[in-house]
Amino acid sequence: MEKLPNIVEIVNSMFSQSRIIVVNGRKYVVKNYTSEAGLVKWLLVKTAGVTAKVYPYTVDPSERMSREVLFIDSMKNIIDLPRVIIKDWISKVVVREFVEGEVFSPSSGVREYRSIGRLLAVIHSHGFALGDTKFQNFVKSKTGYYVIDGEQAVRTDDYSYMYWDVMVFCVTCTYGLISSKPMGSLRKMQEYIAGFLEGYVEEGGKKAERVISVYNRFNYKGLAYVLLPTPYNLYYFRVIEEFV
Fold first, then answer.
1. Predicted local distance difference test score (pLDDT) of residue 181
2. Which of left, alpha, beta for 223 (phi over 0: left; psi -120 to 50: alpha)?
3. Cis (ω within 30 of 0) for the bond into 182?
4. Which of 74, 96, 203, 233 has its CA 20 to 30 A from that of 218?
5. Is pLDDT of 50 > 60?
6. 1: burial class by Cβ within 10 Å (0-12, 13-18, 19+)?
7. What value, to the nearest 5°, has the Cα angle with vertex 33 and ends 96 and 132?
8. What was the pLDDT predicted at 195?
9. Would you state the pLDDT for residue 49?
10. Whole-number pLDDT of residue 243
11. How far apart are CA 178 and CA 51, in angstroms?
12. Is residue 5 scored above 70 in pLDDT?
């Protein structure tokens, strides 16, 4: 029986602004920053009260393209990122290589979560926050995990933006687990997020610990109650507190 997509996958596909093309037998991703789907997605995020105040999201196509190009150009020799082939600043279109691999799965196990934690710590240590760290933006290839979306990435030393990266990944993975494996998802959520945070702190050291400590600010605690269902939000706090 064919597996039905979960709600996270459905929402993600609704707002896709990229398409795959094949040229001479090779796959490429064409990303149009002016596409209606992409604009709607970021307009919803920008106007949502719970997110507009915690991260500097932008809906402007030029700014989103600039952010992604800057992130890729700055980090391409440090982490695995898709190579950009064409930058069309007039049409606001980027053509990049297609990354062969598997999208990160919320059910993939502690080892994989730890790998994503380490990767995110490296990004933060080089002065970037991603803004959009949903699990679908990490693809595992033969060499490791690629980050395939950086259009909301910003250069920053703001720990609250970095903590938002941590939280978005944890929240989207939690919903992925609930959708795919409702029985036992609470236990798995604790185990996997602990693995993610272990990797993050092991790689990021004291800075990573300071980033995680942002969770205790009133507005971020409130966000966890809003974004995660009970009792998942309570167990999320329990796991977080082990690393502060």
1. 75
2. alpha
3. no
4. 203
5. no
6. exposed
7. 80
8. 98
9. 52
10. 93
11. 22
12. no
pLDDT at 220: 87
**Alpha carbon of residue 36 to chain centroid:** 21
222 or 53: which carries more pLDDT confidence? 222
Classify domain 7-241 by CATH number.
1.10.510.10
How many residues appear in the chain?
244
How far, in Å, CA of 90 to CA of 60, rounded? 14
Tokens of 92: 């606001």
- CB neighbour burial string for 82-119, b if at least 16 within 10 angstroms, e if fewer: bebeeeeeeebbbebebbebeebbbebebebbbbbbbb
Query: Could you write out the three-class secondary structure of the chain?
Result: CCCCCCHHHHHHHHCCCEEEEEECCEEEEEEECCCHHHHHHHHHHHHCHHHHCCCCCCCCHHHHHHHHHHHHHHHCCCCECCCEEEEECCCCEEEEECCCCEECCCCCCHHHHHHHHHHHHHHHHCCEECCCCCHHHEEECCCCEEECCCCCCEECCCHHHHHHHHHHHHHHHHHHHHHHCCCCHHHHHHHHHHHHHHHHHHHHHHHHHHHHHHHHCHHHHHHHHHHCCCCHHHHHHHHHHCCC
Residue for token pair 């990021």: 204
pLDDT at residue number 39: 46
Residue 68 tokens read as 């992604």
Q: Which residue has the higher pLDDT, 3 or 93?
A: 93
pLDDT of 53: 72
Mean pLDDT within 132-142: 95
Cα angle vertex 23, ends 21, 24, to 5°?
A: 150
